[in-house]
Design brief:
The structure is a single chain. By secondary structure, this protein is of the alpha/beta class. It folds into two domains: about 220 residues, Rossmann fold (3-Layer(aba) Sandwich); about 190 residues, Glycogen Phosphorylase B (Rossmann fold). The chain is built from 18 helices and 14 strands. α2 runs parallel beside α3, α2 packs across α18 and α4 packs across α5.
């Protein structure tokens, strides 16, 4: 049954490839990286590795950031190895390139056809595959099994929504999850769902994102900009997704940027211009970080249209509204602002960070509202209450400190598999 199911899945993937290529071309109009190295999507490469390869796959920006402490620890332990990093999005590739430069080989993950996967694995001959969070591709895992490449699902999370989706295709998902050599789950709920999907050797080791330290240079620059603003408080809408900026601006209404500076940092670079238009159409004075730094006294909204500067924006903020939580996207990473001592306001959708969200609220480091209007009311209330903000910020930093250590725990599991493996 599973063989037939995977054959049907492969046929669907092949039929979808022309549309995937068209989508790349359309996205490349805004993000030129998508038209680069297209051959890699088919597993075609040049310049083979001359050292043992440790392969880490991080699908996009969030996973790329989360993978950094673990990948650094692996390379520190095995300096003779080469880090091969794969991703699927332009933002993820840019984050990996900024973090690693020439210290890693960064390529696109091949599309999930048996031939592309086979070419990729035969070319790089990885000693180990580390897939970040939820990246279980059916032909990819089967190909690794056929080539004798151990596969670890690191920093694994599995929301109820994702688990339900995988369970609907049990003939495909059960063999894939059961083929994983180890699973390092973020929390007990994730572990329970992963076991129900067929995963074995599942252990709870915590969330790598608690081990990420902010960029000290960017944080210092953000603190400098904050001093320049003087007494003007800063409300940051961080990593916002499509539709959320409009919902938040509508909820602000006449209160938009009255006595405070509103900073909006969209999650995806392709939306920078769109959000700028959204703000100016409302008659608000806009400055763009890429062009005007922090703006001036007349600036009502600062658009964070730069990459790699989230530590700066969090250092600048007095209160953070977490993007991805206002509408049904599951929230972006609230751990980053908590680690920098900034109070967090969440909307109703937090399933991607449900355990961190519960922990933050129980610790008094975050609050949650049921809709955009409630989010804005809570954020403005915090802006007016400096003692409460200070207490929440201290609680957030204490929470992050208490949860650090996932890197060391996951490293031991991954390293044991690497030591037992041999070149395929």
């Amino acid at each position: 049954m599973s063989t037939l199911a995977r054959a049907a899945y492969t046929l669907v993937v092949w039929l979808a490839l022309p549309f995937a290529l068209l989508r790349l071309l359309l996205r490349a109009r805004r993000e030129p990286r998508y038209r680069q190295h297209v051959r890699e999507r088919f597993g075609i490469h040049s310049q083979p590795a001359d050292r043992p390869v440790i392969w880490v796959h991080a699908v996009s920006l969030g996973e790329a950031r989360a993978s950094l402490p673990l990948a650094r620890a692996l390379l520190a332990r095995h300096p003779d190895a080469m880090l091969l990093a794969t991703c699927m999005t332009a933002a993820g590739r840019e984050a990996l390139e900024q973090a690693w430069g020439r210290d890693a080989r960064i390529v696109w993950l091949p599309w999930d056809t048996p031939s592309a996967v086979r070419r990729f694995l035969a070319f790089f001959r990885p000693r180990l595959a580390v897939l970040m969070e939820t990246e279980v591709w059916f032909n990819l895992v089967a190909g690794c099994k056929a080539h004798g490449v151990p596969v670890v699902l690191a920093n694994a999370r599995m929301s109820e929504k994702s688990a339900h989706g995988y369970a609907m295709f049990g003939a495909l998902s059960t063999p894939a999850f059961s083929a994983l050599d180890a699973v390092c789950a973020q929390g007990e709920a994730d572990a329970r769902r992963l076991r129900a999907l067929g995963a074995r050797s599942v252990e709870v080791h915590g969330n790598l994102k608690f081990d990420l330290l902010p960029d000290s240079a960017k944080a210092a620059e953000g603190a400098r900009l904050k001093r320049l603003l003087g007494v003007r408080p800063v409300l940051l809408a961080a990593s916002t997704r499509e539709g959320e900026e409009a919902a938040l601006l509508d909820a602000l209404g006449q209160r938009a940027a009255k006595g405070h500076l509103l900073v909006i940092v969209p999650r995806h670079p392709r939306r920078f211009d769109e959000v700028a238009d959204l703000v100016t159409r409302r008659g608000l004075a806009l400055a763009r970080r890429s062009a005007a730094g922090e703006g001036n006294a007349q600036t009502e909204v600062l658009l964070g249209d730069t990459m790699g500067e989230m530590a700066l924006y969090f250092a600048l903020a007095d209160v953070v509204v977490m993007g991805g939580s206002v509408l049904a996207y599951g929230s972006q990473n609230l751990i980053e602002p908590l680690a920098q001592g900034v109070p967090v306001v969440l909307g109703p959708s937090d399933y991607n960070f449900s355990e961190a969200s519960v922990a933050a609220r129980e610790a008094g480091a975050a609050v949650q509202a049921v809709d955009a209007a409630g989010v804005i009311d809570a954020a403005l209330s915090l802006l007016a209450d400096e003692p409460r903000r200070r207490h929440m910020g201290q609680a957030g930093m204490a929470l992050c400190a208490a949860h650090r250590g996932a890197t060391a725990r996951q490293l031991e599991v991954i390293d044991a598999l690497y030591q037992r493996s041999s070149p395929s």
